[in-house]
Write a structure and sequence with these properties.
The protein contains nine helices and eleven strands. The protein is α/β, with parallel strands linked by helices.
Length: about 325
Amino acid sequence: MFTRRLALPAASLLLLPLAACGDDASAAGGDEVTVVTSMYPLQYLAERIGGPDATVVNLTSPGQEPHDLEIGVQQTAELADADVAVHLAGFQPAVDDALEQNGPERVVDAADSADLLAAEEDPEEHAEHEGEEGHDHAAEGADGTDPHFWLDPERMSSVAAALEEQLAEADPDNAEAYAANLTALEDDLGSLAEQMRTGLASCETDTIVVSHDAFSYLGTYGIEVAPIAGISPDAEPSPARLAELQDVITDEGVTTVFYETLVSPALAETLADGLGIETAVLDPIEGLTDETEDEDYLSLMESNLEAIRTANSCS
């Protein structure tokens, strides 16, 4: 487990001009290269690659819903003073705005290397919310894509390589260490991907029902994902969608409706109770919580895999 250095809670003020911030010492202090990340999956990559030679500051605190992140003066200053900033364009607009106003020289946008999938929002849900303030695909990635790439370890590996390149340029004295750390990380992520392929290759059912559409990247490993709500975790499903899911559960022999951390389980429990089936947790790994603060990306992904294997009777 790597030490996590987290930003303090956001101040009540929003973005203000930050004159001369770039001339100050790093927000985290010391001579180490400083990497500021916007959410936990990117923090994990930065900590693994940076190792003891980098200070990592994450803008999203444990237990905080990353979609809803608002940043204040201190966090804006941390971004401006960073040697490298890592974010996912379109996922957290407040971070995008801060980087545009006063970002560092080196910015890694995960969307550039993660090969994002197109988002599949339910048409009725889109029609219901289109035109509302904040519905400009704010919960999606850039250009209406599905941002949840980190549920695919191979895509995580691609983003890690882009981050390592920028870290090595920012701190050439430790470039060899960053390259070695990247190799070790890529090995771990490759092993995880293989675990997922073999672990999900032979199951009684290949469909999972989840609370919101955060798990589509599991489709890379042979899983059909049926979400209750769309990309936005706050979206309400239509009656037609709920009826469709009841048919999917019955036809596919689904035994479990998955709810997730950081989001209310009410919809999942209602759907499961109505059909007399079980509920279980599937972690979208958008952030850590009080219950998962001693875990990391790899262990959470392994827990997700085991939960799916149990629900789908995989051999």
